[in-house]
User: Fold these one by one.
Assistant:
Number 1:
Amino acid sequence: MISEPEKNKTEDIEQLVGFVVGEEEFAVPILSIQEIIKPIEWTKVPFVPDYILGVFNLRGNVLPLIDLRIKFGASSADIDENTRFIVMKIKNEDVAFIIDRLTSALRIPKKNILPPPDTYSNEDEIIEGVGRLDDGRIITILKIDNIIKREEIVPERD
Amino acid sequence: MELLNKIFRVAHTIKGSGSFLSFDKLTHLTHHMEAVLDKARKGELHITPDIMDIILESIDAMKAILEYIRDNGNDTAPEIDVEPIVQKLDALSKGETPSSVTPEKEEKIGDLNLDEITADNLDDIDLSELSSEELDKVLDQLVNDINTAPESEDEIEEVEEENVQNEEEKASENTPVTSQNQSVVKKEKKELSKAEQQKALKKNIVSTKEQTIRVDVKRLDQLMNLIGELVLAKNRLIKIYNDVEERYEGEKFLEELNQVVSSISIVTTDLQIAVMKTRMLPIGKVFNKFPRIVRDLSRDLHKKIKLIISGEDTELDKSIIEEIGDPLVHMIRNAVDHGIETPQERIEAGKPEEGTVWLKAYNEGNMIVIEIKDDGHGMDAEKLKQKAIEKGIITPSEAENMGDKEAFMLIFKPGFSTAAKVTSVSGRGVGMDVVKTNIEKLNGIIEVDSVKGKGSTFKLKIPLTLAIIQALLVGSQEDLFAVPLSNVIETVRIVEEDIYTIEGKSVLKLRNEVLPLVNMADVFDVEKILEPEKYLYVVILGLGATKIGLIVDRFIGQEEIVIKSLGEFLKGLPGIAGATIRGDGRVTLIVDVGSLMKLAKETHNKKLATDSIKEAKKKKEKPSDYTVMIVDDSAMDRKIMHQALDELGVTVVEAKDGLEALNMLKQNDVDAMLVDIEMPRMDGYTLAQEIRKYNKYRKLPLIAVTSRATKSDRVRGVEVGMNEYITKPYTKEYLQNVIRRNLGI
């Protein structure tokens, strides 16, 4: 039996996975993550924005690999033992992102998640909101559907 | 009544088909049956058990004849005598009541309790009022008899009709017919002589019995995907086997492993071919509409033309069959309209009045070749060039450098038309351009040959299938690309001096042809890091009517690859058709030859291939232009080496371990490396292995400097890619000599 207040609690809590890219900590909904793997070799692809590193083979499927550092305007970093590929489903397609390291699974009450402040540059609407953690940390929650867009990658052909 | 009508119609159909296919005996029999049934359905004849007997008897005879036809291909059936039955039927239709009743038949019918029902029947002909189950049974039986036994002709027509529809509507995706069935049906359709027809019919009866099933194309596609996976796994297995073989040479288990690997490899290949074949249809499906087209056209144009078709059994993937129809129609029209002269002109030219167009299909390696040949007036290269200049398609200087074959290719340019006047048939200058586009879509190649006054030959070379292809793997700088082998005409090795510059563009003179030449690295804008070598490798690509030379840095080899999509986000990138997964699990991009050609043309106009080669050459004159990296965890050892190298005047960089060295390598332009073996974090062996993974450092001299001097250590060193092995202690001079030799100073 779940008591009333407890039930409410589960409903109001957002489950996220936190990770670090560059200097900042981000989070994405846990359910959007397909899997998290250690870095493997990838193949470069011509004529794409520099944040698309290329494609790699994940058990027979060819997945694009995106460097979030470059995407967020930081310089790309070397791959070390903490680097991970996060595979997420975006518009029914699996896409992998390079992150510097994972932090932890997070449970943030919905009331602690605020819309992105105006001071954030959020032109692409890639930020879903800003979450405040119990320990006072601030975490940026990404709107994964908007992280990459096809129009940006492959220019419309004539 | 409805049932009687149905029976009558079936009998009529059998009669019709029988006479169409010249099965005289069958026709004779069914004709008389029909007469009786006609009377019955018009109410002029009361169906009595006796009459039923005779009808059933005639059905039995008919069944026997059909079986005979199925087995022998004709209806001569000596042991079946239809005459007595025919006479009985005749008598019936004339209104006589049959005098004799075959006792056995009565017994059989007795089982069905027919007497009772037919008694009712006699009172009232209106069958609809009869609710008796027995009657239904009898009539059902009759209908079934007729429907199942003569399945042959009936079904052929049905299937045939469907096929024609499919073909015309190109909607066959939803109503697929297995290829075997279609092929047989096609055969039946196109073969004209009676004997062949009968043979085909026979096959058809056999195949329509139980040997074909209809399969949704989606399922076949799914199967093909799975086999694609299998091919990848097989490639991977072979690769692993090769690695294992190297390491454990001479071991007993290798033999066993080899057997397993090769048997899997063979089975996979067979399986792939088998599935591919289920998707194949004979090209006759497309060809058989041409006799009519040619006939109509030649009448419209007042020409006498004979069309000779051969190789219509040649099979092609269904999806290709669907695409090939339109281009072929254009080409045939062209041959008839532009190729063949009027009878008057032909007689004047001393040729037979009747022109001939050959349409031929045959296999050539992994390609199918469709040849359209005419014995008309051929093409005039000079006239074509003139025309192209007039239309502004080429410049006069381009025309000068153009060979005959290239001139013929001009007809595929958009906006080009050679017919002096535009006819209703062709000459609007759209057709051949469309042909080219369509053939290119299929990764095909067009070849044209023509002799003035003698005629022209068009060859379309099309790959057999689209999902699993043979590819040439080439390396451009660090990257690998797979080029569909069907578009690779040849590969050549040239030196820089073989490249000519015409009007500011690089070209390659290959035998009698002048080909545009571009560097693949320029096309894909790949960073140039490899130093050019003495020889340049060129892939001659052909697509549709265009040829181009592509400079690559390495040829890796030929491999069977499975085309995979790059996904929603990346598909449609210029020059890239998709990706494949290689035996080592890495992804290799597959070149889209059509799109690459376009990019190459742009590049060709912008950049000289020779420039890009020069660009990549680095100038190194004095010793200080060379950089040597020392990798050693001991500061002392580094110092000793550093001093020795300083005397040579080369630039020196130092790293404390393998990991640091690897990072420094990326930032520095290193020409040689001195590597200690035992180091923390990453040892020398691992470092060498890592370095050799990059093509860029394929030739970087790696010199092991170590106190480990056993043979196995040295062997290990060679295995991981060390060029030299210096054992401590060493003299300063020895080290300097080794470095000098490796740097070439």
Number 2:
Amino acid sequence: MSIFVDETTKVVIQGISPTSQGLFHGLRNKAYGTKVVGGTNPKRGGETIEGIAVYASVAEAVKETGATASFISVPPRGAADAIIEAAEAGIALIVCITEGIPAQDEALAYNRLVQEFPGTRLLGPNCPGIISPGKCNIGITSGDIALAGGPVGIVSRSGTLTYQALHELSQQGIGQTTCVGIGGDPVPGTNFIDCLAAFEADPETKAVMMIGEIGGSEEERAAEFIATSMSKPVAAYVAGVTAPPGRKMGHAGAIISGSQGTAQAKMDALNAAGVAVAQNPTECGEKMVAIVKGLG
Amino acid sequence: MDLYEYQGKQYFARFGIPISPGGVADTVDEAVSQADAAGYPVVVKAQVKVGGRGKAGGVKLAADADEVRLHAGNILGLDIKGHVVKRLWVEHASDITKEYYASFTLDRPSKVHLGMLSAEGGVEIEEVAVTNPDAIAMLQIDPIVGLTEEAARAWVDRAELDPEAREQAATLLVRLYHCYVEGDCDLAEINPLILTPAGKVHALDAKVTLDENASYRHPEWEEFADDSDVDPREKMAKEKGLNYIGLSGTVGIIANGAGLAMSTLDVVTQAGGEAANFLDIGGGANADVMAAALEVINADPAVRSILVNIFGGITRVDEVANGIIEAISRVKLRSPVVMRLDGTNATEGRALLADHLSDRLIAEPTMLDAARHAVALAQA
């Protein structure tokens, strides 16, 4: 099994046009075997772009195609509205790769989703998307670096390190059930714990690889969840051990986070939760491979 | 983008938050005329984007023009934690009955806004947070609802501000919240927020961090642009639209994505080297961006080798390869380049580069191999 997506997931690409990023990656997703059932563009309803039927709105696309997921790569100023449009149309999974959405817009859109559209899951913004190898690929991940068949679930906060994680496992012949890039923005729609819980519940996922990075306290919270609620083994890497300290102003961050936020604090928390913590992505892959082989 | 205190105060003023009368000065003479206009006594304050100004001698009280001359002369040019003071803020000195603390920021774990208010403001607020956390009244604010006058009143009561300050403080907090939301701040902080013997509440300091992702809807932010303090390497990178942070090592680094760039720094350190910079060329980087990145790194005299670590997703490796080819034809690179290229269109990218490989342009199959090779070349 996979989490959040599978071979029945029907995807609509929001804001499609002949020159859009959405078209480039949407066509790649389609070529991978993903059921890309249409695109939306208020000015191009009724057109067909490179074999993809365009609808004027997400609501229309859902009505005509039964789309269950949407892919958003529109520029930052329209992205929050695009998220809400998808939710209003009843989309169950929204994948938003847009980078650079103002934090105030993200906070507002996230809270609207939680309160008004509890049935909708947002992945991102500023994430690479989600791939369940052999079944469905929504986003910008290159499908050929993933390997079908499981047994590892991957969750990552960093885009390019998501690819690195897939690559490390695939090269060793270890497949993935689902790889989720949650994105590194201040208000991610889906967080580590959502993914860890889903992997814990997924019978085909036997182990989880987690990639974090400095800042915030999501990794510390994930460590707490792993310690209390996970039976499956986890290997992790946190990027930024040697990162230059930011030029911080004000006291609010320090008051909220205390010593949290550094790579070391995150690694210590994960270690204490029984996670196999690595110093770099390659070592993380090696630790995951050893864990999987140990499962027999 | 962090604002200087005077910019933060000017930003606050737009949202109706009371501040002390004052003005900026770049010279001793300007400081005196600002002091004359503000009314004595005045406070002469160094404008630097770093904490601990007072303890470093960057904030002085002056009773008259002669004292302004003395202090302004001492503070201008003062080095505060590596920041040289070039500008002063001179404002009328306030009598202080009580110092409070107030701020708004995003509460990342709960994904709502977080207000913090304390009757024990001042320089030791971080210590208060540790030793007496109950003295800070936290308020989670749903972005959909916002901060109502009613909620603000209950909040100042809970924080136990002095009774005569509460009505004014509640009004001020609502305005600060508007500044934080409509002004697209990541942080809007007042420490101290003061109560005067005359019973007035106003902001004596301003810490504002703007969310640069929102700059498209704030043309007025252009006046805040400031590169006076910036590393010349960072200035050049910024002009080329690159996300660059200068460091002190010898291995120049170019990677796509902040996570991979940080991870590249990590592996260079683990391989025994030291990075000369952090450079994330971002998602969707094309040949021009790659060429610009190489030019910026090439301009750093400390760099002995260049490590290019690309895992294509939205970035296409063939575009990156074209950028490298263009850069080596356009600029004479002083240092050898070690590349690791994977991901979207990697096969096409590697094919493009095949004819250009030499002992100055080296391809390695993995990130670790590339880091080790680049470190070895930097130390050769």
